[in-house]
Amino acid sequence: MKTDFESRPSSTVDDQEDIELPVEDKSVMGRGLSLLEALSRAGRPLSLAELSRETRLPKSTVHRLAAQLVQLRLLDRVADGFCLGLRIFEWGSHAERQCHLRMAAIPFLTEMHSRLRETVHLAVLDGRDILYIEKIESHRAVHCPTYVGDRKPAHATALGKAMLAFSPRETLHTTFNNPLTLSTPRTIITPGMLNQQLQKIRETCVSVEIEESFLGVACVAAPIVDRAGVVLGAISIVTPTFRFDPKRLAPEVRTAARKIAEHLEVTHPAIAY
Fold first, then answer.
1. Which residues pair with 135 in a beta bridge?
2. Is the pTM of this model over 0.85?
3. What is the separation, in whole angstroms, between the first and last Cα of the chain?
4. Which own/partner contact pairs does 184-188 have at CB distance under 8 Å and 24+ positions apart?
5. Rounded CA gap, 3 and 160, in Å?
6. pLDDT one-digit tens code per residue, 86-110
7. Which DSSP string do the residues of 215-268 spell out, in sequence order?
8. How far is it, in rounded angstroms, from Cα 75 to Cα 62?
9. What does DSSP assign to residue 46?
């Protein structure tokens, strides 16, 4: 996810290499992970100065840790500074729950994409965000600026609302007891209205969202729910608003989500989601 960096005064950490500002975890592992997290959030290479600013660590510390992470192939040196290395992708690809879900969903996503010629997504809920774990984009669709590994606030997306509607009470409590932020001027941030949406999703097993996450884009999503009622993820179909037809798309996404859940029950019955 791209981050816009604000201008900082000249007395920032960039000029205070010998002063270490507080971080949550001062261990070597914690500091190394803070570099990886900063690069993941940025979604692009970061310079030494940018990494220092984002992690609140001295440039000397960032330089030492980055060099060690490059040796471990967790980071790569590029012209603009540092980026996440291929080993990170390799490890992430083996995350067991998401790997099984993704492999089960891909055939159904591919079939739906080929037939409808629209962009499709697969996502999971992670805290208050959704995390995209698969995307197949349509060339005829309006560009949807998402990518695998991207995050969006759950309350601002059809995917997130589909999962929130079937989430435990503790998850909903966290969502409703924190500020609901705007992704676009059309994002629903009133708790009462959001709660009404979630109730309707529980009744229909379909979530509809129009320009709440991106202007010019509409989306219909369905939760992937197992027999015990546990939500495993969600899939969506994305179209430009001018050709959005939820009545046509809702049965498509709802059927595909049900088939993915059934496939997981057969292929990985012992996996605890």
1. 121
2. no
3. 26
4. 184/156, 184/211, 184/212, 184/213, 184/214, 184/215, 186/210, 186/211, 186/212, 186/215, 187/155, 187/156, 187/212, 187/213, 188/155, 188/156, 188/212
5. 21
6. 777 767 666 656 678 888 999 999 9
7. TTEEEEEEEEE-TTS-EEEEEEEEEEGGG--HHHHHHHHHHHHHHHHHHHHHH-
8. 12
9. B
* pLDDT tens-digit readout, 159-207: 999 999 999 999 999 899 899 999 999 999 999 999 999 999 999 999 9
Identify whether the C-beta of residue 85 lies closer than 8 Å to the C-beta of residue 74.
yes
Distance (Å, whole) CA 219 – CA 208 = 6
Q: Write out pLDDT tens, residues 243-253.
A: 999 999 999 99
Query: Cα separation of 224 and 263, whole Å?
Result: 11
Residues 256-267 have pLDDT tens digits of 999 999 998 876
Q: What percent of the chain has pLDDT over 90?
A: 51
168: which 2 tokens? Answer: 């435990």
> How far is Cα 166 from Cα 125, in angstroms, rounded to an integer?
11
CA distances from 238 to 137, 143, 160, 210 (A): 9, 10, 14, 10
Cα(142)–Cα(119) distance, integer angstroms: 9
Task: Judge whether 135 and 148 are in contact, CB under 8 Å.
Answer: yes
Report yes or no: 174 and 128 within 8 Å, Cβ to Cβ. Answer: yes
- Residue 268 reports pLDDT greater than 70: no
The contacts of residue 62 (CB under 8 Å, 6+ apart) are 35, 48, 51, 52, 55
Question: Which band of pLDDT confidence, cut at 50, 70 and 90, is reported for residue 115?
Answer: very high
Is 86 within 8 Å of 75 (Cβ atoms)? no
* Neighbouring residues of 10: CB distance < 8 A, sequence distance ≥ 6: none
- DSSP state letter for 184: S
Of the candidates 164, 110, 99, 107, which has an alpha carbon nearest to the alpha carbon of residue 133? 99
